[in-house]
Amino acid sequence: MLPSYTVIGGRERLGSAGLSAVVLNRGRRYSRRNMFHDMEKTGFDQIVSVEPPPAQYDIEELAAQFPFVRFVLLKEAISLGEQINLAVSELDTPLFFVTWNDLRFVVGGGAQRMMERLSFPAENGEQGEERNFARRLCTVPVIQSQRFETLPTLRAPVLPRKKGHTRSLSPSREGLRSLYPFDGVGVYDRERFIRMGGFDGTLKSSYWQLMDFGFRAHLWGEEISATQTLKLSYEASPPVEDTSTGIDYRRFYLKNLAPVFRKDYAHLPLRRFPRFMLQAGECFFSACEDFSDGRQWVHTNRFRWRCDPRAIAGLWTPGNAEESVHTLRQESSA
């Protein structure tokens, strides 16, 4: 269910490249006028700016100056994933690009050029067919610091004793995989995103939303990879990921790490419950309810699995990516 919101502006459409932009807002200290001017030159079809409460005083002025920007004013604060889900409901283009108001283009080109690089002719289509589609769920850019130093924003899963953690990788060449899009930034295939169910709004931690999205994508046979043709840089320090565990991690565990994959379907066996109850730190009835909900979710989606978590971890081998010295570990249990 979508949260309550109000829409201002967005009456005009800039282009017809098939690529729109979603702008998330980190704060008021960044010049959005410059950003919208740059996006106008880029030629995105539509631009949706998600505005967390309280509403900024200059929204009406910005809407008048940039009639191609649709400002989505939230009535209450919502999570990163919920903001992206909401913005996508306001778009109709095949691809959409998620960014923040503290990120700027370094390399990219126009929207038409980006679309050409990230889309492919429709398979088994008729000769002369114009419709294109992206072959991957999400393409992540190279992201640099304010000093234009490349950040290790790619993530690779590691599964010691069923406790998921990730290691950080540098986007050193084209096509390297990432478990999830760092900070949510990337070019997404809208149809695949919707088919995936978007981000899980029941999770409130941005980190575990991204982890859940990435694991689910790979478990269900989707791809998230990097490109060298799109580079962005932060105007300030990059965000620090809050990897602390809690109720969101327990839901992530039940959805992604606990299920067993057999031939062409997955299930969450009852034998997983005793360990889950002991490590969850909940009373028996709460643990039963959480486990039952997770088991029902897995059953509903059981035929969408294509592999198990250990097969996902095997996609990242020493020869596939350059590992950085930074490692993010999850030391807590489910």
Decide which structural class fits the backbone.
alpha/beta
CATH topology of the largest domain: Spore Coat Polysaccharide Biosynthesis Protein SpsA, Chain A
Query: Topology as H/E string?
Result: EEHEHEHEEHEEEEEEHHEHEEHHHE
Name the shape in a single word.
globular
Report how far the terminal alpha carbons are from each other: 27 Å
Q: What are the segments in which pLDDT stays under 50 over at least 5 consecutive residues?
A: 319-334
Give the biggest sheet.
Answer: 9 strands, mixed
Q: Kindly report the name of the CATH homologous superfamily of the largest domain.
A: Spore Coat Polysaccharide Biosynthesis Protein SpsA, Chain A
Mean residue pLDDT:
87
| Tally of helical segments | 10
Radius of gyration: 20 Å
The top level CATH class name of the largest domain: Alpha Beta
Beta-strand residue percentage = 15-25%
* Gross CATH architecture of the largest domain: Alpha-Beta Complex
What is the helix content? 25-40%
**Spatial order of strands in the largest sheet:** 1-4-3-2-5-12-9-13-6
Say how many strands there are: 16
Count of discrete domains: 2
What do these coordinates show?
By secondary structure, the protein is an alpha/beta fold. The chain folds into 2 domains: 5-234, Spore Coat Polysaccharide Biosynthesis Protein SpsA, Chain A (Alpha-Beta Complex), CATH 3.90.550.10; 247-322, no CATH class. Helices cover 29% and strands 25% of the residues. The protein has 10 helices and 16 strands. The protein has helices spanning 32-42, 59-65, 80-88, 111-118, 190-196, 206-219, 247-257, 273-280, 284-300, 309-313; strands at 5-9, 19-24, 47-51, 69-74, 95-100, 103-107, 120-121, 132-133, 138-144, 154-158, 165-170, 186-189, 224-234, 260-262, 265-267, 322-328. The strands form 4 sheets. The chain has a 9-stranded mixed sheet with strand order 1-4-3-2-5-12-9-13-6, with helices on both faces. β14 (260-262) and β15 (265-267) form a beta hairpin. The longest helix has 17 residues, at 284-300. The radius of gyration is 20 Å and the shape is globular. The two termini are 27 Å apart. 43% of the residues are buried.
